[in-house]
Amino acid sequence: AGLQGSVGIGHTRYSTTGSSTWDNAQPSFRGLGERSIALGHNGNLINTVELAARLGSAPGSTDSELMTEAIAQKILRDPGVSLADAIAEAMPEFEGAYTLVVMDETTVAAARDPHGFRPLSLGRLPTGGHVVASETAALDIVGADFVRDVEPGEIVVLTDAGVESRFPMEPADSRLCVFEYVYFARPDSVVAGQNVHGARVAMGIRLAEESPAEADVVVPIPESGIPAAQGFAAASGIPYRDGLVKNRYVGRTFIEPEQIVRDRGIRMKLNPIRETLDGRRVILVDDSIVRGSTTRKLVELVRGAGATEVHLRVSSPPYRWPCYYGMDTSDRSSLLAAHRSEEEIGDFLEVDSLGYLSLDGLLDSLPHANQSFCTACLSGDYPTAIGNHKFVREET
Is the sign of the CA dihedral 315, 203, 324, 377 positive or negative? Predict the structure, then answer.
């Protein structure tokens, strides 16, 4: 049966803290007597320990649950408060990265943290209604026209009369996650004015200029490595060929939270095309190397299919520092590049040569993006204080 109603929210975010269980699934919900709220969240808070103590919640509560509880407590204290006012009152308690969609019986509201770590777009439906989404591709899918990005520090309220906007918090130094362009966003999305596919092609072109190699074919690691491989091939003059076939019924391996799931996913996910690889010098192009487990197994697959040489090119810099803003990489000990040189990484991956895109090369590939970026995972430059972050506290 179809759903009935005039407001709704949905969620597909993977878990960046804890396992992917139904208990951690979103949207989170609170029944508040005559009112109720549901919340969906993208990002990570960095003050969950303090927030849980302040709210009287269990220390292991997810950040999404804590934000739901914080907003719910504002409503319980003042049952007549509007949803937007409750969110505005709670936002100063949230430190870190968040885009939120929150719903009650009549209203949908969306909010973005003052740094704007994660994207959030506003669209208009042909029927006159409005929609917000983490990517513009989602607007395309439901037939909505892109209106604008929700600004850092802004709350937008979707009503029958239109869209209301307020800024309960002053925007801070803009820090959109650069990994949205490298990996997270769909290639058909536009993030902060920059087409993602075009950015990834540009990364591949710059990578070929910075780290050339003599080879017979350029082969992408699908799917997020495809645009960069196209750019690399175009710039180098080396033929582009598909050499790995993806099983489209298997999800993305990097974002799985547990290593055993990632390993199983690799075996099911990709199969080499021997006719492309056998007897050839191969340049493999990938968007990033985080833990290295996926990449090492792929190199083994390509060599097993007859490649005489494997040269790995990566369209982002070495991933050396943990992310506390919405990626599943809070444990630095699991990061391949954290304590290894590029030569040591190449030896571990068993490739004939290894080349990364420079940070300047990455940023130069985003000429149309109208803001600054968070590059903490690549540079170690964190835009917020992280000393009280729950992961840091748990590790010390």
Answer: positive
The radius of gyration of the chain from alpha carbons, rounded to an integer in Å, stands at: 22
DSSP secondary structure string for all residues of 282-337: EEEEES--SSSHHHHHHHHHHHHTT-SEEEEEESS----S---SSSS---GGG-TT
Q: What is the mean pLDDT of residues 242-270?
A: 67
pLDDT, position 21: 54
Domain 22-172 falls under CATH 3.60.20.10: yes
Domain with CATH 3.40.50.2020 in the chain: 180-382
Using CA atoms, how far apart are residues 186 and 177, in angstroms rounded to an integer? 14
Segment 147-159 mean pLDDT: 96
* Alpha-carbon span 320 to 6, nearest angstrom: 45
DSSP assigned state of 249: T
180-382 maps to CATH 3.40.50.2020: yes
Q: How confident is the model at residue 229 (pLDDT cuts 50, 70, 90)?
A: very high
Which band of pLDDT confidence, cut at 50, 70 and 90, is reported for residue 387? very low
Please state the rounded mean pLDDT for residues 371-385.
Answer: 93
